[in-house]
Design goal:
The protein has 667 residues and is an all-beta fold. 1% of the residues lie in helices and 60% in strands.
């Protein structure tokens, strides 16, 4: 129920910008999944925000999945084995987010022979090497990818600037004996973005996982995982003569069991503990002329734990059931905290109907061992499928999810300067309840399939920001936050053709995502006068048509057509003059929309036949992204025309038509 799987072969056949195969962009072609915007790293699932998605790479948490400020994803498709996207009916072994789980596993490496593959593109190249270890008792995989965008910047008139990324994937497997296997995997990625020494961004992920797989018997086995994940970034504002260093560290212990009691009865259970350190940053002047003073934002610590269990059984030949629960706890550990009058970090002025940050009356410094706030939640899950006939079934699911971490950002997609904050004294965890009902049918011996799902989601304690909130380097973020309430509903349709020369799918989603934030007392107006308003990731209509046609043994043609309703935005609806300045007056929050987003991509793949004595094979991929050069609006800003003095709206478009050519090889 509500699970999508994409093969790497399917992902590599999808036309992409600059010819760069992108896992994140590929899943946005599925129903219920939409992009955070052109050039954005995030994705939205069933009306949820980008920070509500749990992204796992070999069980390690990835906090930012984008390269080059979101233009490409951090996942090298050559090193990836499989991808599972859970949109609903999420198994009880997953938790910590309120929308979806994207679970990505790296390849294990070839245990039979040495091999290599890679590719050379317009802006990046990649290479993967794999092979056996110690007489096929194990295997290794090493993969690297690097871009060279900065080499082309002078051609675009951009001098003294740098923009590139690189990443490394590795995995080692070793068979100790018949009952024990060891897996060690890692990922390291880095981005460098420097504009004429005025603005320098460097950020990246580092993860490592040690996994021990133990077979107790033919019916019981376990996985013990020790995982480390780090996300750090440095911002150097050369123009203002200061830099900002910040990051997130977490240590993760997982112990999972699978128990097959009978042919139609199985259990999954285990535990998970995560220790977090959030470093909001150290701000340093870079020279003596800087007007910035050294400032260390308060580190935050937390401990998240969970016990889970689920049982999967067949009630009768037509009914399959999976029932589970997850008991989670979140312990906010000691740090320096502000105390406020009446324990209220926000002041409301009823005559002006505005909020203002309160001043702290004192600060209290707790020891790191102290638990200053604790949360406990039970998260039940259930999925049921009823087989109407051998080729069709009806499914339903319910799941509760709890999210203890919050992305402090007023943008629609994660960026390098976003700050994550744990739940605590003033921030409550987000609570999701989701219901889904679906129908599935096969046609013509599985040549065609149809999936239809409806869903409804209710989320408590979704953070909202007061008007004029300052989020960057805010050491008292509670002074600009209010707890809101979000909901989303929709219908998803997926039609697939899996056999024949022409394959592909049509995905359509009709949905609505909205939020409201009431005042804390009857006299407060809240946000947007306490009325429901559309979330920034609401997309009424979302249609994608993806096809692949095998013209001959050597040639294949791939196409991709996308249409989405423009994302909500707040426009000014009037202006007034004050002391010689023109002051805009804005309409209610997210009451307008950007123009609709649509584009058409195409690629042709040429695979020459491999000669009998040749040990290598190659493939050429010719692509055109945005074939008809649609200037989709990433944003719209309003300004005075310097010539006429009249107000005007200016559209910012990131990508127009982009031709590409890539050579892939394997030996």
């Amino acid at each position: 129920m509500s699970v999508n799987k994409l093969s790497i072969a399917s992902i590599k056949s999808i036309p992409a910008a600059f010819g760069e195969v992108d896992i994140i962009k590929s899943i946005t072609l599925l129903p219920g999944v939409s992009s955070g915007g052109e050039g954005a790293t995030g994705f939205n699932v069933r009306g949820g925000a980008a920070d509500q998605n749990l992204i796992l790479l070999d069980e390690a948490i990835i906090f930012n999945s984008g390269h080059l400020l979101g233009f490409f994803s951090v996942f090298n498709p050559d090193a990836i084995k499989n991808i599972h996207l859970y949109k609903g009916g999420i198994p009880s072994k997953y938790g910590g987010r309120a929308a979806a789980v994207l679970n990505i596993h790296q390849k294990d490496g070839n245990s039979n022979k040495f091999s290599a593959q890679g590719g050379i593109g317009l802006i990046s190249s990649r290479l993967l090497i794999e092979g056996p270890l110690e007489e096929q008792k194990g295997s290794f995989l090493l993969s690297g990818r690097s871009s060279y965008v900065h080499l082309f910047l002078p051609l675009a008139g951009v001098d003294n600037s740098i923009a590139y990324f690189y990443d490394l994937n590795t995995k080692f497997t070793y068979k100790v004996n018949e009952n024990n296997n060891i897996y060690i995997s890692g990922y390291f990625g880095r981005d460098v973005f420097d504009i004429d020494n005025l603005f320098d961004v460097r950020y990246g992920n580092s993860v490592a996982n040690f996994r021990w797989n133990h077979l107790f018997s033919k019916k019981l086995f376990s996985n013990l995982s020790l995982i480390y994940s780090n996300y750090d970034y440095t911002l150097d504002f050369g123009l203002a003569n200061f830099d900002w260093n910040l990051g997130i560290n977490n240590f993760n212990l997982k112990y999972d069991f699978k128990h097959y009691l009978k042919n139609k009865l199985s259990l999954e259970y285990g535990l998970n503990s995560i220790y977090y350190k959030f470093d909001p940053g150290l701000i340093n002047p870079t020279n003596e002329t800087s007007g910035i003073q050294t400032k260390k934002l308060t580190d935050k610590f937390a401990f998240e734990n969970a016990l889970y269990g689920s049982v999967k059984f067949q009630l009768n030949p037509k009914i399959n059931v999976q029932v589970g629960a997850r008991f989670s706890s979140f312990l906010r550990l000691g740090q320096e905290f502000n105390e406020y009058k009446n324990d209220n970090p926000l002041i409301y002025y009823s005559d002006l109907k505005i909020y203002e940050s309160a001043k702290a009356i004192k600060t209290i410094d707790y020891d790191i061992e102290e638990v200053i706030k604790s949360f406990y939640n039970l998260e039940p899950r259930i999925s049921i499928s009823y087989q109407l006939r051998s080729d069709q079934s009806v499914k339903m699911s319910y799941n509760r999810m709890v999210q203890y971490l919050h992305l402090i950002s007023n943008t629609n997609s994660p960026t390098p300067i976003d700050v994550w904050a744990p739940s605590g004294r003033f921030i409550e965890p987000q609570l999701l309840d989701q219901f889904a009902l679906g129908y599935f049918k096969d046609f013509k011996n599985s040549s065609y399939s149809l999936e239809i799902e409806g869903f409804y989601k209710d989320i408590q304690n979704r953070l909202d920001y007061i008007d004029g909130a300052e989020l960057i380097a805010n050491n008292a973020i509670e002074q600009v936050l209010l707890n809101g309430h979000a909901r989303a509903k929709g219908i998803e349709v997926l039609m697939k053709k899996s056999k024949g020369k022409l394959t592909g799918w049509i995905a359509y989603t009709l949905s609505k995502s909205e939020q409201k934030t009431l005042g804390r007392t009857p006299e407060e107006v809240g946000i947007n006068n306490g009325d429901w308003y559309l979330t920034p990731h609401d997309k009424t209509h979302d249609l994608s048509i993806t096809t692949s046609y095998q013209i001959s043994e050597k040639w294949a043609l791939n196409t991709n057509l996308i249409y989405q309703t423009g994302q909500p935005i707040t426009y000014p609806n009037a202006q007034y003059e004050f002391s010689g300045f023109s002051i805009p007056n804005y309409a209610s929050r997210n009451s307008s929309r950007l123009p609709a987003y649509h584009r058409f991509d195409i690629s042709a793949v040429y695979s020459p036949q491999k000669e009998n004595k040749s040990f290598a094979s190659g493939q050429w991929v010719f692509g055109i992204y945005n074939l008809y050069n649609r200037q989709n609006a990433a944003s719209i800003r309003f300004q005075n025309n310097s010539d006429t003095g009249l107000n005007e709206a200016v559209r910012l478009s990131i990508f127009g038509i982009i031709p590409s050519i890539t050579y892939n090889f394997k030996f």
